[in-house]
Specification:
35% helix; 444 residues; 10 helices; Immunoglobulin-like; five-stranded antiparallel beta sheet
Length: 444
C-alpha cells in the first residue's frame, strides 16, 4: 500500500500541473473522505489595464487553469470538486477585462468560465490560505491587457496526449514533490544559435497523420439492400476507395483500409487495425442506413454512447496487456489504471465529437442530412479507447433517391471530398491546439 501511495503521489503531483485532477478521483475510489470546498463568491478588482479575479472559498481547492482564443478569448478555472448554488451556474456580467462569467459542471468537476470583453494575459495565479482575521481561502487570478498570442502563451502547461502525462508522472527525480497548483517558475530562455557556432539542430520529424477507413460489412455480410437491389457492402467499398484516393492525392496522410476487397471482417478486427496503425490516428467507418419507412433519407454521424464507453472499459479490463496511447495499463495498480483509462477515453470521445462536428459542417449542403445528424451508439467499431472514431451513415439505402446517390460516381466524389475536407479541418485544428499548448509550455 505504501508503494502504491508513493506512485500515486508522483502521478498526482504532475497530473495536476497538466490539468488532470487525479488525486480527488483516486481518493474517492480508495474511500478517503475529502470535503469539497464551497464557493462563497467571486469578486473583481478592475482597473484600466488590469483585472483581479478573486474566488472566496470555504476549504482549500484543487484546480487547474486553461483557456482558448474563441472570440476575444476565454479563461477557464476548473475545480476538482466544488459546492455551489444553482444560481451560480447562470452567466452574469463581469467587470474589467471580463465581459461575463458563470459555472458549469463537467464529469464531476466544476468549471468557471470567464469570457473576455478585452483580451488579457495571465500575470499571476496564487492561493491565499486562511490567516488571522480571514477564515476563507482565496484563489486569485491577476490579468493584464495583452493580445491573444500573449494570452495563450501565459496559460499553464498542458500536455498534448496521455503519453506525455505518464512520462512526466513516472519520471524519477531526487527532488521532493509537492502537490500544488501554484504557478511554476519560468524556465530560463533557450540561447539562440549564433552563425558559425556549430551544427544546426535538426528539427523533430513531423508526426504521421493516419486515417483508417472502414468500408462496413463485406464478404458473407452484405449489410442492407436497397429497393433496386443495391448491396450496402458494395457502395461502402466504393465510397471508401474514393475517399482513400482523394486523401492520398492530398499527400499528407497514411491511408489504411480495413478491407480492400469483398472480405468478411469482424468488428473487433476492424478496431484492432485502427489501434495498430501508427501516428496520429482517425477512424471513419462508412455505412448506408436502412429503415422500413422508405421516405426517410439523409446522412448521420455516430460517436460512442455512454453505454459504449462502459463496454469499452469492460473489454479493456478483460484483456491482458491492454494499452492506451502506448501505455500498458496492467503495469499500474488497478485504481491508477482505471483513472488513466478514463482520462484517455475522455480525450478520445472529445476528439471524436469534434470530428463529427466537422463532418456535419462540411456535409451540409453537399448531401441530405437527417434533422438530428449527430447521434450516439454502442457500436463495436467505435470502442477503441485511444482512437478518435466515427461511423458515417452516408445515406439511407432504403430510400430510392438516396440509393441512386449511393450508386452515383458524381455524388460519391462530391460527398467524399467533403469528408476529406472535414478530415483536413480536424487535423488542422489539432495541430493549432498543439502549437498553442507548446507556446503555453514555453512560457513556464
Amino acid at each position: 500500500m505504501a508503494e502504491f501511495c508513493s506512485l500515486f503521489q508522483r502521478i498526482g503531483a504532475r497530473a495536476v500541473r497538466a490539468g488532470l485532477v487525479v488525486l480527488t478521483a483516486a481518493a474517492s475510489l480508495l474511500g478517503v473522505a475529502h470535503a469539497a470546498p464551497e464557493l462563497i463568491g467571486v469578486r473583481f478588482g478592475p482597473s484600466a489595464e488590469a483585472t483581479r479575479i478573486v474566488f472566496d472559498l470555504a476549504g482549500g481547492p484543487e484546480y487547474s487553469v486553461s483557456g482558448d482564443d474563441d472570440g476575444v478569448g476565454r479563461l477557464y478555472v476548473e475545480f476538482a470538486a466544488l459546492e455551489l448554488e444553482n444560481a451560480d451556474k447562470a452567466f452574469r456580467a463581469g467587470q474589467g477585462h471580463i465581459a461575463r462569467y458563470g459555472f458549469s459542471e463537467r464529469r464531476g468537476s466544476v468549471q468557471a468560465v470567464f469570457e473576455f470583453g478585452k483580451t488579457a494575459r495571465i500575470k499571476e495565479v496564487f492561493l491565499l490560505e486562511p490567516s488571522a482575521g480571514v477564515a476563507k481561502h482565496r484563489l486569485v487570478v491577476d490579468l493584464v491587457t495583452a493580445d491573444k498570442e500573449a494570452f495563450l502563451a501565459s496559460l499553464p502547461e498542458r500536455y498534448g496526449d496521455l503519453t506525455q502525462v505518464i512520462e512526466q508522472a513516472t519520471a524519477q527525480t531526487d527532488a521532493p514533490l509537492v502537490v500544488s497548483a501554484a504557478p511554476q517558475a519560468a524556465l530560463p530562455p533557450t540561447p539562440t544559435r549564433k552563425e558559425g557556432a556549430g551544427p544546426e539542430i535538426t528539427p523533430a520529424p513531423v508526426e504521421t497523420l493516419t486515417v483508417v477507413i472502414d468500408p462496413g460489412h463485406g464478404g458473407r455480410d452484405p449489410g442492407a439492400t436497397g429497393q433496386d437491389g443495391t448491396l450496402e457492402k458494395v457502395v461502402n467499398m466504393a465510397a471508401a476507395t474514393e475517399l482513400a484516393k482523394i486523401l492520398e492525392k492530398r499527400g499528407r496522410y497514411d491511408v489504411v483500409l480495413t478491407r480492400d476487397g469483398d472480405e468478411t471482417i469482424r468488428p473487433d478486427e476492424r478496431e484492432a487495425l485502427a489501434r495498430e496503425a501508427g501516428g496520429k490516428k482517425l477512424f471513419i467507418s462508412l455505412h448506408a442506413d436502412a429503415i422500413d419507412k422508405h421516405a426517410v433519407r439523409g446522412a448521420s454521424v455516430y460517436t460512442l454512447s455512454d453505454k459504449g464507453s462502459v463496454r469499452s472499459a469492460q473489454i479493456a479490463k478483460s484483456q491482458g496487456g491492454y494499452h492506451v496511447y502506448d501505455i500498458a495499463l496492467n503495469d499500474y495498480d488497478s485504481v491508477v489504471g482505471d483513472i488513466l483509462f478514463d482520462k484517455a477515453q475522455d480525450t478520445t470521445l472529445t476528439n471524436s465529437s469534434k470530428f463529427a462536428a466537422k463532418l456535419i459542417e462540411n456535409l451540409t449542403g453537399v448531401t441530405p442530412l437527417l434533422n438530428r445528424s449527430h447521434r450516439k451508439g454502442n457500436l463495436r467499431v467505435l470502442l477503441a479507447a485511444d482512437v478518435p472514431a466515427v461511423l458515417l451513415e452516408m445515406a439511407f439505402i432504403s430510400n430510392a433517391k438516396d440509393e441512386v446517390n449511393l450508386n452515383s460516381a458524381v455524388w460519391r466524389r462530391r460527398t467524399m471530398t467533403a469528408v476529406a475536407d472535414a478530415i483536413d479541418a480536424y487535423f488542422d485544428e489539432q495541430q493549432l491546439q498543439r502549437h498553442a499548448d507548446a507556446r503555453a509550455g514555453a512560457a513556464q
